[in-house]
Amino acid sequence: MIDLYYWPTPNGLKLKLFLEESGLPYRTIDVDIGKGQQFEPAFLAIAPNNRIPAMIDHAPADGGPPVSLFESGAMLLYLAEKTGRLLPSDMRARTEVLQWLFWQMAGLGPMAGQNGHFNIYAPEKVPYAIERYEKETARLYGVLDRRLADREFIAGDYSIADIACYPWIVPHESHHQNLDDFPNLKRWFEAIGARPATKRAYEGVPARRAPLTDHERRVLFGQTSATRSH
């Protein structure tokens, strides 16, 4: 059994996508980040960076005690290796997948995240920041669109690279990106959205998030090095 500590953010949804695709038994344990539950000691014990998702595998492959993980990319890699699914065993094909997994972690996620922050959550509009991150998001969409010009999925077969990237494309409208400008990306996005596992993972997830309260804004964006429980 996998315990998935979760909130329906793009990074949280990556893990639900994998678990639904793989059929691994799991349960979700909600961590309401707007209420500050990510700062509770029990959660920090497995996720010292106070970010979701995190997980505990109660049946690791080595038969030893439970394994806890944080960081969504590390979790996808762990689960792919555990199950032998969605990550090729061939060295060259595996390298392709891992390159794009790390591309998402280092580029697409952070840049689209900043885009969303300054477009949706920032208390005041900062034109330079909005333009900066919208352009960088568009550049990354272009990279992915060109990659998909001659292949169905990012690294050939459907893999953890696709699972990592898809949730960061879902909020494209909020990030002021038009998928019609990226036809290969749009085709890929629609194909993944039609998968039964994707539909199950996104069941009940709102298309748009409600505006943040002042308290939620302080919890999410007011942290310093002195992390504390709320």
From TrEMBL:
<dbReference type="InterPro" id="IPR036282">
    <property type="entry name" value="Glutathione-S-Trfase_C_sf"/>
</dbReference>
<dbReference type="InterPro" id="IPR010987">
    <property type="entry name" value="Glutathione-S-Trfase_C-like"/>
</dbReference>
<feature type="domain" description="GST C-terminal">
    <location>
        <begin position="90"/>
        <end position="212"/>
    </location>
</feature>
<dbReference type="InterPro" id="IPR040079">
    <property type="entry name" value="Glutathione_S-Trfase"/>
</dbReference>
<dbReference type="InterPro" id="IPR004045">
    <property type="entry name" value="Glutathione_S-Trfase_N"/>
</dbReference>
<feature type="domain" description="GST N-terminal">
    <location>
        <begin position="1"/>
        <end position="87"/>
    </location>
</feature>
<dbReference type="InterPro" id="IPR004046">
    <property type="entry name" value="GST_C"/>
</dbReference>
<dbReference type="Pfam" id="PF02798">
    <property type="entry name" value="GST_N"/>
</dbReference>
<comment type="similarity">
    <text>Belongs to the GST superfamily.</text>
</comment>
<protein>
    <submittedName>
        <fullName>Glutathione binding-like protein</fullName>
    </submittedName>
</protein>
<dbReference type="InterPro" id="IPR036249">
    <property type="entry name" value="Thioredoxin-like_sf"/>
</dbReference>
<dbReference type="Pfam" id="PF00043">
    <property type="entry name" value="GST_C"/>
</dbReference>
